[in-house]
Amino acid sequence: MLVFGTIPYLVIVALAVIGLATAALKRNLIKIFLGITIFESAINLFLVSLGYRDGAVAPIFTDAPSTEMVMATPQALTLTSIVIGVATTALLLSFAVLIWKHYGTVDTDKIRRLKE
Amino acid sequence: MITDAIIANSPALLVMIPLIAAFACPFIGRISPAVRNIWVVGAMVLTAAMALLLAGEVFSSGTVVYTFGASAPGMSVPPDSGGIPVRIVFTVDAMSALMQIIGAITGLSIVLYSIAGDRRHTGLESYYTLYLLMIAGVMGMVSTGDLFNFFVFLEILSISSAGLIAYRIDRGVAVEAAVKYFVLSTIGAMVILVAIGIFYGEYDALNIAVIASRMQFTLLDQVALVLMIAALGMKCGAVPMHFWTPDAYSMAPSSITAMLVVASQASLYGLFRVVFTLYNVTLNAATVGWIIIVLGVLSMVVGVTMAIPQKDVKRLMAYHAISQTGYMLLGVGVGLAVLGNQSLLDAFGYVAMEGGIFHIINHAMYKGLLFLTAGAIFYRIGTRNLNRMGGLGHNMKYTMVFFVIGALAIAGIPPFNGFASKLMIYESVFMFNPILSIIAMVVSILTLASFVKVFHSIFMGPRLPEYADVKEAPAPMLIGMGILAAVVVLFGLFPGVVVDHLIEPAAQALVNQGAYISAVMGGA
Amino acid sequence: MDLIASLYTGSGYWNPLVWLIAIVVVFVIVYLIWSRGESGYKKGTLQTTPFISGNPEPEKSGVHVPGGNLYWGYTEALKGYYSRLVPLHTGRLNDYLLWYLGVTAIIMVVVVVTA
Fold it and tell me: What tens-digit pLDDT sequence spans chain B (524 residues)?
């Protein structure tokens, strides 16, 4: 039971590490954005797993089999976070388009006209 | 009747007005640019009026609690919820009110400046939409009493800021700055969300007051604290996480750079809110205080030394912004380091914190002013390179006067406002640790040296032939700069009044965690 | 009167109005000294042109010192410091991220160990 309960958190940590490592180590802008998206999914998974209660039902009172109900807050948080994530990704990708148009590359080693 | 309703709902209106005005802006803009300008200025005036109204309310009669969706705004804890505030609550105490005043004054002067200064660009509807979203983000961040809500406003702020940094694409260089800013701030915001998730998992709550009242400082809390400190420290530009700051500040349009200063300070506010209100005495005050002090000292020294050899005027000012943020971190960090020890807190802790907080409002004013003058010069001569400037004092006299006021204030020369807050920091930090105080003074001297260079290379010298027919900046830009300059001078001439009425309540509000909790939980 | 309140800093106080009065007094004294100066010089003669060891005066636009040349000596003297500090600002997005993550890790260690 304990082992089963910890599996989601192990997955979350693994995903977060993969996401952050991709973002920090890859030099391709698109791959960096992918890393950010993976990290974001890890967080969404984290929020959803926080809200999981064994044996509880959704908070819909009509014909509810039991009164053990899940607080819907984490789901609401996750939805908000997904929406924000979509906006973020869209903006990042449009930046990548512009960078490609003006610099002709998406390599972070070459996107460094601003330095020092 | 109607005024009572407005005052009662001012925390909601404060965020609602800029949000509605922002999303209506693209439609209003189709009518005509003049109508759009009136719309934007009107929305900003209303927002500023709300902020000042609310701040007046807070400073005269204590913390204002506003619960969204409740039958009465003050009813933060529903009677059938078992003592938990389940709704989103705005908790506006003296510190929040101070930040709202900053947002209101700078926001208003920037909008006036922007009407003239940015009118040559295309796509201005989107520009003002994003600008008003920034205002909404700042106001929301500093008002909210709910951690997840804080995250949402933080993201609104960083998405709109990123859009505006990239606004003047500038052969892709501005987009490069925006990418750097946005990747970092997205990851920072998500890390904050992890910390919020940890709090939710541990304490089943998102309300700052509830979490603060249940705070245990377990291992998980320590992890959450570190995630918050690092992410918010990065967002306010503390060295060595400051690399995005000069890029973003130098490439954004000048009016937006002035607003980015306020945005960074909203993150600074978040940092102080977390360490003081969320954790307060439960955390290891000496360690965390010293971490913030070290970040502050690094920011001061590295910021100013990197500024001196810069050739781009806005990049130079951006490094100074980092350096000045260091003073705020130092002042408040010293206050934090002696938290829990009442005698030391009375001896110098409060003064240090008041100095740091006073420096926040002073910095927003004079740094905003300096970026606006840099923008006015760019508007007239089209370059930011110091090597190609010279002799502009002959033609742009008012801009020069405003620049001098800002430069003397940032260097801490009396009688301008920077001196008052720096004096408070020097004298109180000297009692804590003399070396820190000496570093702060040396940094101030280097700041002056650096601004002497900027002043000389922009305004002094003979009239250069290529700038012989440069004109003074247009009147709305001068009015925008004038408002900020007037505040700089007034705060400098009457620091005692400002500290007594604005800064001291704010410092007390940060230290006194119990008052914050009981304002929301109702005397629990 | 509230408006002229001094700012107390724990170990001293600061009152800008007193300072302003002092500055005005100093300026009055300076003006008095200045006004006692020689006023009987002849305009347009050698008395009002700069004396550069007898060399001709250069064009006004030729004597401007642009910003990049200021503080050359300062940066030269601190070369050891600047040659280490400036290259850290690489402009690479990955470095920015690694600095952020690294600082988070360091603070994490410090806080968790001392708690």
Answer: 788 888 888 999 999 999 999 999 999 989 998 999 999 999 999 999 999 999 999 999 889 999 988 888 878 887 777 777 888 899 999 999 999 999 999 999 999 999 888 788 888 889 999 999 999 999 999 999 999 999 999 999 999 999 999 998 888 899 999 999 999 999 999 999 999 999 998 888 899 999 999 888 889 999 999 999 999 999 999 988 999 999 999 999 999 999 999 999 999 999 999 999 998 888 888 899 999 999 999 999 999 999 998 888 999 999 999 999 999 999 999 999 998 888 888 888 899 999 999 999 999 999 999 999 999 999 888 888 888 888 888 888 999 999 999 999 999 888 899 999 999 999 999 999 999 999 999 999 999 999 998 998 888 878 887 888 888 888 889 999 999 999 999 999 988 888 888 999 999 999 999 899 988 887 54
Q: Is residue B149 part of a domain?
A: no
A28 touches chain C (CB under 8 A): no
A36 belongs to a structural domain: yes
Instruction: Please indicate whether, in this complex, the C-beta atoms of C103 and B500 are within 8 angstroms of each other.
Output: no
Instruction: Count CB atoms within 10 A of the CB of residue B128.
Output: 27
Coil/strand/helix, residue B474:
coil
Contact B206 A73 (CB under 8 A): yes
**Which residues of chain B are within 8 Å of residue C74 when distances are taken between CB atoms?**
308, 449
Domain count, chain A: 1
CATH code where residue A103 lies: 1.10.287.3510
Spatial separation of the C-alpha atoms in residues B233 and B221, rounded to whole Å: 18
Interface test with C, best of A109, A110, A113, A114 (most C CBs within 10 A): A109
> Which positions ≥6 away from C72 have C-beta within 8 Å?
none
* Distance between CA atoms of residues B362 and B367, nearest Å: 8
Question: How near does any CA of chain A get to the CA of B159, in Å?
Answer: 7
Range of the domain at A87: 10-52+66-115
Q: Work out the angle at residue C42's Cα, subtended by the Cα atoms of residues C40 and C44, and round it to the nearest 5 degrees.
A: 155
Q: How far apart are the first and last CA of chain A?
A: 54
In this prediction the pTM is 0.93
CB C92 within 8 A of CB A109: yes
Residue B343 sits in which domain range?
A: 284-493
